[in-house]
Amino acid sequence: RAFHQFIPFDVPKFAKRLLEHFKPDAVLWFESELWPSLLSQVKKSGVPFILVNGRVSDKSFRTWRRFDKIAKELLGCFSLCLGQSEQDKERLAALGAKKADCVGNLKFAGMPLPVDGEKLKELKEKIGSRPVFLLSSTHFNEEEQFAACLKELQRVVHDVLVLAVPRHPNRGGEVAEMFKNKGFATALRSKGEDITPAVEIYVADTIGEMGLWYGLSQVTFVGGSLINHGGQNFMEPGRDKNAVIVGPNMFNFVEMLAKAKVAGAVLQVNSAADAVEEAIKLFMEPEYLRERAEKAYLWTVKEAAVLDGICRVLNEELKR
Fold this sequence. Notes:
Elements: H1 12-22, E1 27-30, H2 36-45, E2 49-54, H3 58-66, H4 68-75, E3 80-83, H5 86-94, E4 100-102, H6 117-127, E5 132-138, H7 142-147, H8 150-156, E6 161-166, H9 172-181, E7 186-188, E8 201-203, H10 210-216, E9 219-222, H11 235-239, E10 243-246, H12 254-262, E11 267-268, H13 272-284, H14 286-303, H15 306-318
Parallel strand pairs: 1-2, 2-3, 3-4, 5-6, 5-9, 6-8, 7-8, 9-10, 10-11
C-alpha cells in the first residue's frame, strides 16, 4: 500500500510532528536534496535511515567542500548512503557519510513509459511506412541547430518524418514557428494538427506522451546534450528498441554513458550535423539500425536488474 504525503516546511516541530504521526520503521531518502530539520529528527528517532540513489554533481561537490562541517553533519544522519555511481559514493564518503556504497543507478530500473495503445495504432496508420527520426527532450537552440541540417536527412532518406519533442512543452509554438520559417512543412500537436503525408516535422508539445513517440520512432536523438545542460535520460528510447544518439555534453550521466558506449548501446556525436549523418547511416543500412537498436534494448534490460541489487542491500541493512 502506498500513498502520497507532502513534506511540511523544514521546521523542527513540523518535522517531529510528521514522524510522530506516521511512526516509520525505516526511512528511505532519495537523491540528494537534504532538509536539515527533517534529517535531524529522523536521526533522533533512531530508525534505519538510508540515502538511496544519492548524487553529488561537480558543482554540488565544490559547494559542499566549502561547508564541510555542515555536509558532514547532514550526511552523518544516514546509517547508509547509496550513490548512483562509484564517483558519487566516493564523494559522499569524502563529505562525511559514515557508510557509503554503490550498487547502481536506480534510473536504470525504470519501466518503459506508458503508451495509449489506441493513439499509437492511429498514428502508426497515419505515418505508414515512413522512417521516423525523433528529437527527444530538446532545449532552446538545439532545434535550430538541427534545422540547419535536416534538409540533408530529407534529401537522402526518402519521406522521412521528424518528430520534435521539446523538453518544455510551452516552447512548442515557437519551435514549430521556427521550423516553418526555415522552410519545413510543420504541424503542432497541441493545435490538433494531423500528421499528413505532406508534414515533414511534427512538433509534439504535450505532456505524458513520451512513450508514444518512442513507440513510433526508429532513431532517437536525446536532447540537452548539444548545449551545456548535461544531457537527459537516454535509456528510455533504448527500452523501445530505438537506436540512440546523444551529443557531446553528457556530464550528468558520465558513468552511465561510459557503460552504454562499451555495450554499443549509444552513439555519441559532436554536433547536430554529426547526429544527422549518423541517422542517415542508420536509416540507409537496415541491418546496422537493427543491430544498434537491439544493443540499446539488451543493455537497458540488463541494467534494469540494479533494482534487485538495491533491494538486497536495503534488506541487509534493515535486518541489522
